[in-house]
Amino acid sequence: MSVKVQVLFYSMYGHIYKMAEAVAAGAREVPGTEVSLYQVAELVPDEALEKSGAQAARATFAHIPIATPAQLAEADAIIFGTTTRFGNMCAQMRNFLDQTGQLWAKGALVGKVGSVFTSTATQHGGQETTITSFHSTLLHHGMIIVGVPYSEQRLLNMSEITGGSPYGASTLAAGDGSRQPSENELAIARFQGRHVAEIARRLKSE
Ligand SMILES: Cc1cc2nc3c(=O)[nH]c(=O)nc-3n(C[C@H](O)[C@H](O)[C@H](O)COP(=O)(O)O)c2cc1C
Description:
single chain; 7-stranded mixed beta sheet
C-alpha cells in the first residue's frame, strides 16, 4: 500500500523551503510513502521581489513545481509550510487555499491528514498563532490535524534558541534573514514529516 504525502509551501527567502525539504525527508523515511514537494504561486510583483533580495533566494527553489488546488484530492496527507505574516499565514498560501472551494463542496479532503509548519523573524513573532489559525481552514475541510507530540524530545530543548512546538515545526529567520534553520529545528521538521506519514499509513490501512 502506497501512502501519498504532499508537502506544500510558500517561502520568500528560503527558510521555509529548507524546512519543507526536511519535512519531506522525514516522510520519506516511512516505507511505502510517496512524497512530493510543491510551492504555491507567488503574488508579489517581480520588481518588489528584486528590490527586497527575494528574487535570488527564490531562484534556489525555482525547480519545485507550482501546486494546483485539484491535486490535493490525490493526497492522503498534506503538510503545509507558510511564512508568518503579522502572526498569520502569508497571502500566497491564503490565496491558494481560497481556491479550494470546489474541493470543500465535494468533501474531497475529508479524513485526510493535515499538518502545518512555519517560520518567523523573531522568537515571539506569532509562530503558534500562525499554525493554530491555519488549522481552522483544515478543520473546515474536515482534515485530521496532526502536530508534533512531546515524544519528540527536541521540543524540550532549553539550551539554545529554537523553534518547534506541539503545533508544528518552526524556525526563526532573524529580522534580516541571516539565521538559518538549526539542526534542532530541522530534526523536529523531519519528525513531523515522519509522524504525519506514519499516521496517514495507519488511517489508510484501517
Ligand atoms: C509583511 C511581512 C510580515 C511579517 N510578519 C511577521 C510577524 O508577524 N512576525 C515575525 O516574527 N516575522 C514576520 N515577518 C518575517 C517573516 O516571517 C520571515 O521573513 C519569514 O519567516 C522568513 O521565511 P522565508 O525565508 O521562508 O521567507 C514578516 C515579514 C513580512 C514581509
